[in-house]
Amino acid sequence: MMEVSTVRTGPASPRARGRRPTARRAVAPLAAALFFFGPALAFVAGDRAVEIENRRLPEFPALSRGWDVIPDAEAWATAHLSLRRYAVRADAALSELLFGDASSHARTGRPDYPRVVEGRDGWLYFGDDVTEACRPRRPVADTLERLRRLAEIVRGSGRRFLVTVAPDKTTVYPHRLPERFPGQSCLGERKREFWAALRMARLPGYVDLRGPLERTQRDSGAPAYWRTDSHWTERSAGLYGAELARALDPGLSRHTRLVRTGRAVRDGDLGGLLGVPREETVERWRLDRDGVRRLRQDDRELPVSFRTANASGRASLYRPRTLLIGDSFTRNSLPWVLPYFADLTYLRSDAPATVGADQVAWEVARSETVVVEIVERHLVGGRVEMLDDAVLAALERAL
After folding, report:
1. Helix, strand, or coil (residue 274)
2. Which residues of 35-74 are buried (b: 16+ CB within 10 A; e: fewer)?
3. Cys staple from 186: which of 45, 134, 154, 218, with CB 3.0 to 4.6 Å?
């Protein structure tokens, strides 16, 4: 005979009523302890915050700013919280599981522009391309005039100056963008305005990268940018190095080869912004320059800057003391750029915010050649630390 259980619907006994709150009281402190002390325990165990938003972790704000320091201190604490990347991934994974929407947890803080634009066939695009175009800090004409002033200050001091623009992925490979997305109209309009103005500006020392990237992409049939990353491929990094070398000295191309070395699986940085890693299989490339070897590298000022020296028994090197200022496109391309130079200092383009304008000016003053790379979206949005008034004034004083 099947046993039938009955459910008591009347008032519970005092003893039973006491057991449930006791259990809740036991669980609540444990959950609170994990919430408040879990990151601290993880820190003691060795876990450290990492860059998960394609930009450097913020510095602790200056206390001299008074009450204005509070929101910046909160942002600093959030960015440096241990286990943060795992929480972001878990949040995004749960969202994608329940609602089929990962990008909703990767917003800019503005509800209309996503941090990642999810395109067709698994292609991902950096939402900052849209944000910078649709919410610019400066007009394009003002930004290009500041860039011209930078060129004239450096060239006027007798130094050689080159400047180049790393095109956005949305510019060189827009083929897998969705048919519609927030900010699509202003993105297209602002890009067209920027590139037309750049062509008309005829900036001193300008090295075009967009043309060579689009030609190589068209001739090879292979995209110039990775599917799950905001940056260009290793082959494109090799092209970047070759174009700089050609502009400095065409003879540097002798005894130089870009060699395909196989395939590998990698995680793109845009998957990290979504909180859910996205893998893809990519082609790997190596730059071979006959006889070039590293003599030394001074890493004392990493991650903001470092100095390197090369020697060569066959391939020629660019020998004037060179300062290379660039953002993440240059940082990711260094293995395909450094072997062309005998004496090179690399400086992050956001260095004015970390080491100050005077230190940047000092680095320029000790160099004979200055090369500046700026990603398109920063110029389109007018958010370039190297073009701020304080930096330009410091350069004028130093040079």
Report:
1. helix
2. eeeebeebeeeebebeebebeeeeeebeeeeeeeeeeeee
3. 134
Closest CA relative to residue 187, chosen from 238, 127, 268, 230: 127
pLDDT tens-place values along the chain, 399 residues long: 333 333 333 444 444 444 444 544 555 565 556 555 666 666 666 665 655 544 556 666 656 555 554 555 555 565 565 555 555 555 544 444 443 444 433 444 444 688 999 999 999 999 999 999 999 999 999 999 999 999 999 999 999 999 999 999 999 999 999 999 999 999 999 999 999 999 999 999 999 999 999 999 999 999 999 999 999 999 999 999 999 999 999 999 999 999 999 999 999 999 989 888 899 999 999 999 999 999 999 999 999 999 999 999 999 999 999 999 999 999 999 999 999 999 999 999 999 999 999 999 999 999 999 999 999 999 999 999 999 999 999 999 999
In one-letter notation, the amino acid at residue 48 is R
Buried b (16+ CB within 10 A) or exposed e, 345-378: bbbbbbbbeebebebbbebbbebebbbbbbbbbb
Q: How many whole angstroms separate alpha carbon 107 and alpha carbon 124?
A: 14
Written as six digits, the tokens of 95 are 């969202």
Distances (CA, A) of 77 to 34, 74, 80: 18, 5, 5
The count of C-alpha atoms lying within 13 angstroms of the C-alpha of 225, restricted to the half-sphere facing its C-beta, is 26
The two structure tokens encoding residue 304:
């903001």
Q: Under 8 Å CB-to-CB from 67, ≥6 apart: which residues?
A: none
Give this prediction's pTM: 0.76
Name the strand (E) or helix (H) holding 162. strand 160-166
